[in-house]
Design goal:
It contains 15 helices and 12 strands. The strands form 3 sheets. The chain has a 7-stranded mixed sheet with strand order 2-8-7-6-5-3-4, sandwiched between helices. Strands 9-12-11 form a 3-stranded antiparallel sheet.
Length: 348
């Protein structure tokens, strides 16, 4: 079985494992206070051109989203997000379990706009009975989005400006950030994220690490007591150096973006193959997630040898599915899938 259902099926890149093995018997302080975490944090500050940013290492994406959002909001506040956003659809109500409502807005291709944020906040403030409903207190977006699409620099600048007009922290989920920054049509940089967002994270779990996300906080108000909140949420890893080491391995020589660029390239090959065989792409993007509509009869034949994710029904006989490449995807596996796509569609 060749798996294209997610980008975290494999363990970790050899460079990560080598660094972990080489330092395995070293004794270091715990909880992310070791020299490796400090070095990784300094490297991230340099990449982001944000020398005063706070950098914290957490284990997983849902844990990171919940910790950051709960830390930023007061008890009566909720977080604005796309209805298709990860925190609204794929985290088992983790945000709501922390006592905060997700204020979901309609999304186009996975994205929300500055105009929507303005309208939502203004409507709330114009409501004479507003104290009876949840107050918008933060904005959450992801890049890439849940549909693999990207925010442009202009779009992120507009969203950031809207958030600052209304005093709302902007939080960007970067679980797949590298696949976005490496995409052929990307217009953002690490420095842009640090300049325009109050907090964001650099994903490791889906991008070559065994586990780990690096949270970057630029807003001074959000920095206060954040380590207390990490601990309270059960997110402080005792062997914290394992996180710092992995980000050093991925970031210190550009490996992070090289791996992501290759995954995006292989995803583009799949997109070209699907379109050439007459299967329409859904929400076309240039990152590592490929969404395509295919007849159920064709999917049944592919399912024998390949794993992919069901995304929804297109009609009574057709489904939308996701094929996902990753930092570890092999060219020969992509070639095999392309050959079988052509075979089952009669384009041999």
């Amino acid at each position: 079985m060749i798996r294209f259902n997610c980008d975290y099926a494999e363990g970790a890149h050899p460079a990560v494992l080598e660094k972990l093995i080489a330092t395995n018997l070293e004794q270091t302080p715990g909880y992310g206070t070791d020299d490796y975490c400090l070095a990784a944090a300094n490297l991230i500050r340099e990449l982001c051109s944000a020398p005063s940013a706070d950098v914290h290492f957490l284990v997983g994406g849902t844990q990171t989203n919940m910790t950051v959002i709960a830390a930023a909001l007061r008890p009566h506040q909720g977080v604005i997000a796309a209805a298709s956003g990860h925190i609204n659809c794929h985290e088992t109500g983790a945000i709501e379990a922390s006592g905060h409502k997700v204020l979901a807005l309609p999304a186009e291709n996975g994205k929300i706009t500055a105009e929507q944020i303005d309208a939502h906040v203004c409507a709330h403030m114009a409501d004479g009975d507003r104290e009876h409903v949840v107050q918008p207190g933060m904005v959450y977006i992801s890049n890439p989005t849940e549909l693999g699409t990207l925010y442009s620099l202009a779009e992120l600048e507009a969203i950031s400006a809207a958030c600052r007009r209304h005093g709302l922290p902007l939080f960007l989920d970067g679980a797949r950030l590298g696949y976005g920054l490496a995409a052929s049509d990307n217009t953002l940089s690490f420095a842009d994220l640090a300049r325009l967002c109050d907090v964001f994270y650099i994903g490791g779990t889906k991008q070559g690490a065994l586990f780990g996300e690096a949270v970057v906080i630029t807003n001074a108000a959000l920095k206060r007591d954040f380590r207390y909140l990490i601990k309270q949420r059960g997110a402080m890893l005792a062997k914290g150096r394992l996180l710092g080491l992995q980000f050093l391995a991925l970031l210190e020589d550009g490996l992070y973006l090289r791996l992501a660029r290759e995954a995006d390239r292989l995803a583009d090959r799949l997109r070209d193959a699907f379109e050439a065989c007459g299967y329409p792409l859904v929400g076309k993007n240039s990152t590592n997630q490929v969404f395509v509509s295919m007849p159920d009869t064709v999917l049944d034949r592919l399912r024998t040898d390949y794993s992919f994710e069901m995304w929804g029904r297109a009609d009574d006989t057709t489904s939308t599915v996701r094929f996902c490449t990753s930092w570890a995807t092999r060219e020969e596996n992509v070639e095999a899938l392309i050959a079988d796509i052509r075979k089952v569609s009669g384009h041999v």
